[in-house]
Amino acid sequence: TEACGSLTVNFTDNSTNNPSSWAWDFGDGETSNEQNPTHIYNTLGTYSVSLTVANEFGDNTLELENLISVFEVPELFVNVNNASGEDVADGSAELAIVGGVEPYYIYWSNGEENIDAIYNLLPDIYSVMVIDANNCMATIPFTISWEVGIASNLSDNINIYPNPTKGFVYIETTKNIPESISISDVLGKTILEINPTSDISKLDLNELKAGIYFVSIKLKDNNIVHRLIVN
After folding, report:
1. According to DSSP H, which parts of 142-203 are helical?
2. Angle 164-166-169 (CA atoms, 0-180°, nearest 5)?
């Protein structure tokens, strides 16, 4: 059984001769005495699983080697060069991949495949998806803005703190109240979304696992994405 990032497994006892006790060893330091336990593997690695059953006549053990594999999900980073005008197709994006297993299969939302950078982009919202050799997938959105000076000024007027954070994060927009603020993971899944009513928003991220996330801030005339690290 294989999965990317984490894996929940429902184990079923198929023993005969009416056992009265069960001892599961999940191979990651965790055990269970339930007959049909559920176990979560959230650490990368390969695990062997054993079950020892017993009744009044004795006991028996079955071990399945390398039964469970949890693979690393690639982390994606996109470096963006904005377009020089609203209708000018001269933006670009360059992809960096950390982790996972090569070869990588790369799919850009504009139709390009298996290249590290794309060019001649109009201002818009794009995404890129990567699938590695273990079939682990990651997706990241990014925005090509227009008029670099305006986009830079907009970015300068947004403060995200503390970053890295261990729980709460504040997002401050000094000139405009955003239409929405969303948090997404490296797979592109939206974790949290709010519609702010003031120029300072406080988000509770205590339930998030440590890792890299992306803050998407939708303004009236622009969309800005910032990276956020949760420890």
Report:
1. 148-156
2. 70
Q: Which residue has the tokens 């963006």?
A: 80
Question: In this predicted structure, what is the pLDDT of residue 151?
Answer: 39
- The edge-to-edge listing of strands for the beta sheet with 58-71 is 2-4, 58-71, 45-55, 21-25, 31-32
Is 151 within a domain? no
- 53-101 residue pLDDT tens: 999 999 999 999 999 999 999 998 888 888 887 788 989 999 999 889 9
With contact defined as beta carbons under 8 Å apart, do 73 and 6 qualify? Answer: no
Regarding whether 58 and 95 lie in a shared domain, the answer is no
Task: Please state, in angstroms and rounded to a whole number, the distance separating the CA atoms of residues 111 and 217.
Answer: 25
Mean pLDDT (the chain) is 88
The range of the structural domain enclosing residue 192 comes to 157-231
Q: How many CB atoms lie within 10 A of CB 25?
A: 17
Token reading at 37: 């336990």
